[in-house]
Amino acid sequence: MALVRMSDLLRHAHRERYAVGAYDVVDTAFLEAVLDGAESCQAPVIVSLAESHFEHFDFESLMAAAVDAARRAKVPIAIHLDHGQSLATVERAIRLGCNSVMLDASLSSLEDNIKATREIVHLARSCGVAVEGELGYVPGVEGEAAEKHPGAMQLTSLEDAERYIAETEVDCLAISVGTVHGRLRGMPQLDFERLSAINKALHIPLVIHGGTGLNDAQYRALAANGVAKINYFTGLADAAARSILEEAEDNPSPTYTALVRGVRTAIRTEVNRTCRLFGAAGRAGAALAASRPWREVEHVVVYNLRDDGSGRSEDWAAFAAQGVAALGAIPGVRGVLAGRALQKDARYHHCWLIRFAAAEVLASYRDHPDHVRYADNMFRPAAPDRITIDFELIDVLREDKESKFTPPALTSLSAKT
Ligand code: 13P
């Protein structure tokens, strides 16, 4: 199985009335245990990295591990930026491999939230990436004690939600119906009447933040009323911490590896338990069949420099470095590599390998001012002899051949360099 489009995953869950667990990970032990837990009950899953946790890990390294682990997983997966704080973080998350993003503007006024979210939707759509909006305020901090509640809860109003969806066109909406992030002071009272009214009016997958600490009936009722994604972190963090404390109690002079030995099993068990409660267990096959695979695109350009002396290797390196700087910063570009042929008599002497997050980037890259400027002023005049081909990258060993979706025809989109 493989990475899939988050919007498809959530639409399936919404239609079939179950919720996909979206688990924040803070290191590779969490990452591995979350995937292991989802695989143990054949549940689709969302791996989330929250900006509020960035002080605990290197975003770039953990994203690389998440993308790699997701590709090897045996259940369908999406990778999500949770509680992004700025457009810059969202751009960076897409560059690093997130195929779903959230900008948290839930403490802003409705006008400002809509304005900021529209900007994110515009950016994300041009990269094929899904967007989660949030309306209403869920207080608290993931994984922290109940005292860390910076503001009062604001329940989502139906009227605001209708306007927000019409004006932002987000793929899914996080709403506030009584949950709280982090550890709880008691059992939250959820406003199911409000949830049901919002679900009936909006017809889009809804998201619950602060998923830890509800009872079984509440989880089931959330999924039955349009919640297709439940964010869950504190329950995993507390299970991991309990395991470490128990190890420390039994062992007066524990080594680090002894202390963390039980962490993965503790998290895996909690993921398995919650996937079952959310109704996601056993859904991996059906969710995969209903979801388009998330495929990156390699934009390959082979070229010769004009025979005017600029083909000397030191000139080429400087020329290529300018290209890497100009093209690598365009949204949706995952990476830019410049290459030189090893064979002296090769038909083409140089290449660009430019990795796009998804096929949608072909059009937005082609029209991006940085690309137009570099291509028109630098590259095309210097390299008139060239071939450009866009390759959709297919995980032929893992992508399920049963998937119903075929990629759209892209002839008209070619991202000429
Ligand atoms: P909990 O930490 O309360 O489970 O909430 C997680 C969350 O909402 C992440 O966005």
TrEMBL record:
CDD domains: TBP_aldolase_IIB (cd00947)
SMART domains from the UniProt entry: Dabb
Alphabetically ordered keywords of this record: Calvin cycle
Pathway annotation from the record: Carbohydrate biosynthesis; Calvin cycle
Record flagged with keyword Protein biosynthesis: no
Keyword Ligase among UniProt keywords: no
Domain Stress-response A/B barrel: 297-391
Stored InterPro entries: Aldolase_TIM (IPR013785), Class_II_FBP_aldolase (IPR050246), Dabb (IPR013097), Dimeric_a/b-barrel (IPR011008), FBA_II (IPR000771)
Pfam families for the chain: Dabb, F_bP_aldolase
PANTHER family for this protein: D-TAGATOSE-1,6-BISPHOSPHATE ALDOLASE, D-TAGATOSE-1,6-BISPHOSPHATE ALDOLASE SUBUNIT GATY-RELATED
Protein's UniProt name: D-tagatose-1,6-bisphosphate aldolase subunit GatY
Record organism: Methylobacterium isbiliense
